[in-house]
Design brief:
Elements lengths: L14 E2 L3 E2 L2 E4 L2 E2 L31 H6 L1 E3 L4 H12 L4 E7 L1 H4 L10 H17 L3 E5 L7 H7 L12 E5 L14 H11 L6 E6 L25 H8 L2 E4 L1 H4 L27 H18 L29 E4 L1 E2 L13 E7 L2 E3 L21 E2 L1 E4 L5 E8 L10 E12 L4 E6 L7 E3 L8 E10 L2 E10 L4 E12 L20 H15 L5
Helix pairs in contact: 4-9, 5-6
Length: 526
């Protein structure tokens, strides 16, 4: 399904990771110093699946495939130097993972097999004994959640004075759309947020592929393996000096003859649910991360480095850069392990047809009741309705202007799992502005969370936001967040369109799937 996209070589120069040898990691043509040879210890001897994966060939991948999939961008080497110095001083390192269901454990019953846990296992077997530097991983991943949500709500999941030293962003399949550049704006806003953290973290992109569920893997809906790399993420990586670890390059190698990518699926790479990567895929991603750090960590040597300012935005307008957002989010990536720090307080003032789903309840956990073999820790609470004619009104306070707060704000609402059938719509308005409401007339793919912006010039003081469902016999949704951001945000054109019920990666896909959705599911407004 969808158009065929010829591949054209990127005219920008791209740095590939130097090749490995048995004597060490080569750094710009020079072997690693002998005192750092221990960095090259392989993970296969102590990985949990060591009886299955004893060597790299057991992962159905070659060393050169791993090397080519690591797109080195080191315009900001001070971040790597800062991390390396911290490691060699024996200080603890904290890593957070910001991702979707693949990182949250979708399809994997044993979460110790997830790529970030496999990397952590290598670190604490190799780096910790030699340096005393332990690695702690906090998985902030949320199934069906993308950069728009994390941009405004990340602070709710980070404890004060405990910012990360390493950030992995795995959202290349969750940020979909049909316009190059504008579709990548939420990713850029999120990237700038984490680059701006006081801990000066090293940031890496992890790029996966969403094949989309079909009757079998021979009928996948994304045969050419498109993701956000096609819509601006590669450019973001280059612009901000972020290394991109592209599992897509492993699963979907580029045909040198016709310049087209095609999925080459080997056993263990794609989960049997046809939606997530499987245990071998996770091991391949973990090995990419390990190889990257085996390349970077031995470069230490500098006691100090010059921290540079973050570059001007590439796709997003400077007026909408998100620095101090506020969020009420009935969402927890670490259910049962930690609580959420709400940065915005909301109150339910009136309600008809909505029922509260407590975030602490077991029913809020992802996959509850659908997969007894999967114990996910990402959870989604809030207020849920499953019928038309429902409405709910929240109140909240917009803070007065100060050094951290602007004079005006944009206001958005987070809706998850919006399912609509026949002629139906959701209306949302701020305060008494029912005549200026935002109408949602499309649906959403499965259990996805999306931010819908309601107003873009909101002054300080108390306000209300109201949501009403109209028309049709069946309409279900979960309201699980309200966000405040800088003034002027009205949404992101081309990002996660509601007029199609499948992911789109180009304007051609969008127009085609919009016609199909309109034919099969009634009339949708553009």
């Amino acid at each position: 399904m969808g158009a065929i996209y010829p591949y054209s070589a990127d005219p920008r120069k791209e740095t590939t990771m130097p090749a490995r040898t048995t004597r060490g990691v080569f750094l710009n043509g020079t072997p690693a110093l002998p005192q750092f040879a221990w960095f090259n210890q392989e993970p296969f001897a102590f990985w949990r699946d060591k009886t299955v994966y004893r060597r790299i060939s057991d992962l159905s991948v070659r060393e050169e495939d791993i090397t080519k999939a690591i797109h080195m961008n080191e315009k900001d080497p001070c971040r790597a130097t800062t991390l390396t110095n911290k490691v060699l001083r024996g200080e603890p390192v904290k890593m957070i993972v910001i991702g979707g269901s693949n990182s949250a454990g979708g399809g994997i019953s044993d979460h110790r097999q997830l790529f970030h846990q496999l990397f952590s296992e290598w670190w604490n077997h190799v780096i910790l004994p030699r340096t005393g530097s332990s690695l702690t991983v906090e998985n902030l991943s949320l199934g069906g959640t993308a950069s728009d949500f994390f941009t405004f709500c990340l602070q709710n999941f980070l404890w004060n004075n405990d910012d990360p030293n390493i950030v992995l962003i795995e959202l290349s399949v969750n940020d979909y759309g049909y316009l190059n550049g504008t579709t990548a704006q939420p990713m850029e806003l999120l990237t700038r947020r984490v680059l701006s953290l006081s801990s000066f973290p090293l940031v890496l992109y992890v790029s996966l592929v969403d094949l989309l569920k079909g009757a079998s893997l021979s009928s996948i809906k994304n045969p050419h393996c498109h993701n956000l790399e096609d819509l601006g993420q590669r450019e973001l990586a280059t612009h901000y000096g972020i290394t991109l670890l592209s599992w897509r390059d492993i699963l979907c190698p580029l045909n040198p003859v016709n310049g087209i990518r095609k999925a080459y699926i080997r056993p263990g790479m794609v989960n049997r649910d046809h939606l997530h990567i499987d245990v071998k895929g996770h091991a391949q991603v973990a090995l990419m991360i390990i190889r990257y750090f085996q390349n970077v960590l031995p470069r230490a040597g500098q006691q100090h480095c010059l921290k540079t300012e973050i570059k001007r935005p590439l796709f997003a307008d400077t007026s909408i850069l998100v620095t101090n957002p506020l969020s009420w989010a009935s969402t927890n990536p670490r259910w049962g392990k930690s609580t959420v720090q709400q940065s915005l307080k909301v109150r339910v003032e009136s309600n008809q047809g909505f029922k509260e789903l407590p975030l602490h309840s077991v029913e809020a956990k992802a996959g509850y009741g659908s997969n007894p073999f999967q114990d996910r820790t990402d959870a989604f609470g809030g207020w849920v309705s499953a019928r038309q004619g429902s409405f709910i009104e929240y109140s909240f306070d917009v803070p007065e202007r100060n050094i951290y707060a602007p004079s005006k704000w944009s206001v958005g609402i987070a809706i998850r799992g919006l399912e609509q059938h026949e002629r139906r719509e959701v209306k949302i308005w701020l305060d008494k502005g029912k005549g200026d409401e935002v109408a949602i007339t499309g649906g959403a793919r499965g259990q996805e969370t999306r931010i819908y912006f309601v107003a873009s010039e909101v002054s300080p003081g108390q306000h209300t936001i109201t949501l009403e469902t109209k028309g049709g016999k069946r309409i279900s949704l979960l309201i699980n967040g309200i966000v405040l951001g800088p003034a002027g945000i009205k949404g992101f054109k081309g990002y996660k369109p509601t007029e199609t019920l499948d992911k789109v990666w180009s304007l051609e896909d969008y127009e085609k799937l919009k016609r199909i959705s309109k034919k099969n599911a009634g009339s949708f407004a553009v």
